[in-house]
Amino acid sequence: MAGPVIVAICGIAMGLGVFPVALAALALVLHEAFAVSLAAAFGTAVLVGLCIAGLLCVLSWRRLRKETTVFQRSQAEFVRNVRWVKEVLQNEGPIKMRSNQSLGD
Fold this sequence. Notes:
Elements: H1 2-34, H2 38-67, H3 72-90
Helix pairs in contact: 1-2
């Protein structure tokens, strides 16, 4: 199990490491091919990088919102627990226990 996870982490790390180099290469290609200043070429590369990052964020956000349906039961239980805690805290008297419960349970 650890082997594939380590390989996946290494692949992700290498992919992330290549991204800045690819943007710098894009900037240099823009500078050479279109005779624009280095500042304009690198600025364009930054905009391309921001667009790619924004697109990835939007896609992952949409996917995460769809996946939250898996946790609906847990969320409903959490809401019930919060309501119970609020009710207990608002109760002026001691906590009432059912007859079949004891303090040791």
